[in-house]
Amino acid sequence: MKLIGAINPLRPKPCFSIPLFEEKGTLYTQMLRQGNTIKGFQEFECENTVYTPIENGDSYAIDDDALQVFDVGVGNFLIGDKRILSSKLTKLSDNFFKTPFLLKEIGEYLSDDTILGRANALIETKVKNTADTKKLENTKADAIGIEETIARLTTSLEEGEISVLAGAGISYHSGLPVVEQLVPAILRKIGMSEDEQRYLMNSNMPFERFIEILRGDSIIDPIFNIYEEGKPNTTHRLLAKLMVQKHIRTICTTNFDRLIEASLHEEGWLEGKNYEVIYREDEFEQLDLNDSFPRVIKLHGGVQDKENMAITLSQVSQKQLSQARQRVIKHLFSDGPHKQVLMLGYSSSDIFDITPHIQDLSAKGKSVTYIEHSVDVAKLEPIQRKERNNPFKQFEQGIRLYYNTDALVESLWSKFAKGEVYEMRQITTEWTERVEEWYLKSKDGAEAFDYGLCAHLFFRLADFSRARRFWLEASELSLSVGDKKRHGTFLGNLGLVSDSMGDYQSALDYYNRALSISQELKDRKSQILNMANVGNVRAKIGDFQYAIDLLKQAYQIAQKINDIKKTATILANLGSVYLLWAQFESAISCFEDSLVMAQQIGDLDIEKVCLGNLGNTYRNLSRFATAKNYLQGALKIARQIGDRAEEGIWLGNLGVVHGQL
Q: Largest Cα–Cα distance in the chain?
C-alpha cells in the first residue's frame, strides 16, 4: 500500500493525522495490532475524501510497524513509526510548540518519557512565571475590580440591558442533582467499577448523549421525574422578581425543571397571560424575538412534556439543533436588543448543540458576564482565558467572575427585592429514590441489564474493547437463564463492535447468529435489523449480490409488517450497495423510493441521506447540475436540524461538483 496523504479530523495544526493509503485507485486506512504493527488495511469508504497529499510516500505492508503521521502544517509532515517520530519530535519540539500542553499530549500519545519530561518542565516554568507576571498584567477586567463589576451589573439590570442564560447550577439548592451527582449514581447502580466511572466521567460524554443511551436501553421516566421535584430557591426567586419588575424580559435555560415558572407564579404572574414559556419545536418556529413580551425559553425542552423533552435530547445527542433554536442562540449572543448576557450556573458543556453555534456566530457583539461559582476564590479575568468548554474566546467584551453565587444573589436581592428580607433557600429531595426506581423497573429481573448498559456506554465512547467485554458477559448471562430475545440482541451488538473494529468475519458470525434467533422467535423487527446488518457487511467485503438479495428479503418483511421507516431505511441501504457496485440506475430507483417514504413520515435523517446519495450517484453519471440540486437539498436539511458534521460532508461534495460544472 502506498502512502498518499493524511486526513486531519478537524483539529488545529500541529496535530497527529490519519495516514491514507492507495492501491489500484482505492483508498485505505491501516488496522493496528496491540503490539503497534499493521494487521491489515481497511477500505476507506467516505465519499469525496478531502485529504492533504504527501509527496513521494513510501509503501507499507502487513506486519510493518504502525505508521504515525504528524501534521506540522503548511504541507509539512513527520512520518514514521513511534520510535522514529519520537526521535524527530524530541529534536524539533521547541520549534513547533508554543504551549507545553500540546507537547504533553504528544508525549502521552507516543508514550515518550523524554518528551513528557520536557513538557512537564515547561508547564512548571509556565506556572511559576504566571505567578510572577500576573502583577504586571493590566487587562480591562483586572482594572474594573469585583465590586465595580457587580455595581455595573446592577446598573445594567436596572436599565433593562441584560438577558440571562441559566444552567443546572441554579437548581442545585433546590435539591436537584447536577450531572456530576446524577451520572455517578446511575453508574454505581449498574455495578460499574470506580475506575470505569472515572474513565467515563472524564470522557466528556455530553449529558444529553448519556440520557439518550439510557432512554434506548431502559425505562427513562423515573429519571425524568427527578426534574419534577424540588422547590424554587433564592436564585429562581430573584430571576422571577427581575422579570416581574421588567428588568429582564428573556431568560434562556438548559434546565428541564419548572422552578423559574414556579417562582413567577409566587410573584403573581400567570403563564400565557403575563409571560410565555417556549419549549416545543413548533413554539420555537413561531417565536417572534422582536417583540418585548417576557418569556422563559427552555432550549432542551421541559419536564412538563416528557415526550417532547426526549425527542429534543435525542436530537442534541445526534449533534442536531434546529434552525429555530439556532435563531434563539444568535438572538441571545449576537443580534438581540439587549447589550449583555449574564450566565448563571452554566458550565458551557453543551458541546453538541449550543456552544458550537455560539462559536460560529459571525457577529459576537454582546458583552458576556460568566459567573464561575467559587467559595474560596474571588477574582476577575477576561473570559478568553477559560481553557475548557469556552465558546467565547472570540468575544471581545467578556469577563469571567469567580465569585460565590449565593453572595452575588444576596447582593442583587438587596437591590431588587424591595425590602423583602434575604433568606437563602436550600431544599433537599429524595432524588436517589428515583434512581432506585429507574433501576428496578429497567432491570425487571434481567440479570444481563447491567452488563448491557455498561457495554452500550463504552461503545458510544468508541472503547470497543470494554464494550465487547461487557456485551460478551451480557450475552453469556442471558443465554444461561434462557432469555433468547436478549441473547439475540447482545449477539447483534457484538456484531456491531466487530464491524466497527473492521473484523468483518466475526461480525458476520455474530449477526448471523442473532438473525437465526430473531427468525426462531418470529421477531420481525429484529429480523429486519439483523438482515440489514449482514447485508451491509457483505457489501463491505465485496459480495454485492448476496447483500442485495438479503436486503430485498428484509425489504419485503418491512413492507409486510407495514413499517414505513424500516422500509425506507432498507431501501436507502439497498441504494448504497448499488452505488458501491456502480449500478447507478438501480441506486437512483432505491433512493427515490426511500425519499418519498421519508418525506411521507417526516423523517429528515433518511430524507437527508437519500438526497445526498442521489447527488453522489448523479455525480458519478456526470450529471453535475442534477447532482448539485440534490446535494443542496441534503445541505439544507443538515443546516435545518443543526447537523454540523453532515453539513461539512455535503459542502465538501458540493465543492467537488462545482469544480466539475
A: 81
Q: Read off the pLDDT of residues 467-520 as tens digits, 9 standing for 90 and up.
A: 999 999 999 999 999 999 999 999 999 999 999 999 999 999 999 999 999 999
Quickly count: other Cβ atoms within 10 Å of residue 325's Cβ: 25
Q: Residue 610 has what pLDDT?
A: 95
**Coil/strand/helix, residue 29:** strand
Backbone φ and ψ of 189, nearest 5°: -65, -35
The set of cell numbers assigned to 444 is 425487571
Q: Which of 46, 238, 115, 257 is nearest to 172 (CA)?
A: 257
Grid coordinates of 599: 418525506
Average pLDDT, the chain: 86
Q: Are the beta carbons of 258 and 240 closer than 8 angstroms?
A: no
With contact defined as beta carbons under 8 Å apart, do 610 and 594 qualify?
yes
**DSSP 8-state symbol, 441:** H
Task: Give the pairing of strands 340-344 and 162-166.
Answer: parallel
pLDDT range class, residue 138, cuts 50, 70, 90: very low
d(CA 355, CA 328): 13
Dihedral of alpha carbons 246, 249, 255, 260, sign: positive
DSSP conformation class of 303: T
Closest-CA residue to 614 (of 639, 640, 645, 637): 637
Express each pLDDT in 308-350 by its tens digit: 888 787 777 666 667 788 899 999 999 899 999 999 999 887 7
Helices and strands (H and E) in the chain: how many:
28, 15
Q: What are phi and psi of 542, to 5 degrees?
A: 90, 5
**Rounded to 5 degrees, what are φ and ψ at 426?**
-130, 115
CB-CB neighbours of 289 under 10 Å: 15
Q: 490-497 long-range CB contacts below 8 Å, 24 or more apart?
A: 490/448, 490/452, 490/455, 491/517, 492/526, 492/529, 492/530, 492/533, 493/452, 493/455, 493/456, 493/459, 493/467, 494/468, 495/533, 495/537, 496/459, 496/533, 497/459, 497/464, 497/467, 497/468, 497/471
DSSP 75-138: TEEEEE-HHHHHHHHHHHHHHH-S-HHHHHHHHHHHT-HHHHHHHHHHHHHHHHHHHHHGGG--
Task: Write down the residue that cell numbers 495516514 correspond to.
Answer: 19
